[in-house]
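Incident review: delayed structure delivery

Summary: a single-chain prediction request sat in the queue longer than the usual turnaround. Root cause was a stuck worker, restarted by the on-call engineer. No data loss occurred. The affected request and its eventual output are reproduced below so the record is complete for anyone auditing the incident later.

Affected input:
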Amino acid sequence: MIEKLNRINLRKRDIFKSIVDSVKGSNVDYTKISIKKALFLLSIPMVLEMLMESVFAIVDIYFVSRLGSEAIAAVGITESIITLVYAVGIGLSLGTSAMVSRRIGEKNQEKASGTAFHGIVAGVIFSSLIAIPGIFFAKDILQLMGASSVIVNEHSSFTSIMLGGNYVILLLFVINGIFRSAGNAAIALRVLALANVINIVLDPCLIFGIGPFPELGVQGAAIATNIGRGVAVVYQLYLLVKGSGAIKIDLSRVKLSVALMGKLVRLSIGSIGQILIMTTSWLALVRVISTFGSDALSGYTIGIRVIIFAILPCNGLSNAVATLVGQNLGASRPDRSEESVWLAVRVNAVILILISIILIAFTEPLIRIFTDNIRVIKSGVDCLRIVSYGFVVFGFGSILINSLNGAGDTKTPTIINIFCFWCLEIPLACFLAFYTGMNENGVFYSIIISEAVMTLIALYVFRLGKWKYKEV
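Output delivered after worker restart:
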């Protein structure tokens, strides 16, 4: 009995030490340590990183909700538009990460650093293409999205500031992707923690005019968010130049390579394309829901924020698996890549089942945290409860898709997304919402149906195994 207790205590100490190491950051070779430990060390900081990213939206909605349903809807529509920026950022991050992780697996730190530099330059170029029209055509974009005249005339500044400042959003994604792919997930976590602390402090001050700060309303939320992310990007660049791990950018040695930039962009285009397809389908869903009024749109906005927060473990595991797949393929260990994926799938299933049970049981109390408007609460409750039913299949599909991306096969997920989101989800949402009397609930059901189909297709493609031979 004593020996058994000693083994249990030793196991607890090992787990605690691993958690501490994962958050602090530890330089280990993820292609050689046990797969369970590798997944554990990478996924914990990545889950917490996803938590930090989601907190931005949760904090903004929490404070902005005090300004009324029109203000909430303004943030919801703008965040839906900003998902296009997220698409470019995530896509470019995936392309850069796939190449960096492969070079790290090959033990070629110099080429990994050169790839990271080109990813950052590409991020600046893409951001400029978004910022200019975003600043000058914010009102037109809101009108196109079906926003009310109140939102267009009184809250368009929030949209113009967020789109104009998209540099900090996009670079935050790209550089954190570089850290993650090099195995430095703890650094990415610390960067986002810093950004969130600044945003949480400045948000209420600039929205409500606390102390010496001006009362800026919804516009204040945009300024606070951009300041927080901007400081974080400066800190990221400092860490890259200083060099704190496998990645160090020596500005005196790096040179722009047209060939490398072309290869990076071509790989990233596939990732950007698949995310754009997914996010434009979400924009289409927002447009459908907006036809049922600001209350329905506000409820959807709140419900989706809670959902995004709830699936953070899934996103963290997906990012961890992408890193493990890329590094192990670089080390010529496809067997370890595949084993990592199936382990993540099993762990993810257990976590998301528990989360979905909690959300379904406590749906209304969660929505009431953000609003006391009865109509908004009803829409938010319906959204959260219906979408929660599909959590497990969504998590399964997310890991499989991200595994293909981590292997450098960005074309296949793009094709899957085109079919599931453009050819299935949008037409199905319109049909269920307008022709069956389900209204916005039809949109919510279309989400879980399309995600289930995506998972089945991704499973078939993954089991074919062609991703193991992808050259990057």
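Verification: The two ends are 53 Å apart (CA to CA).
Action items: add queue-age alerting; document worker restart procedure.
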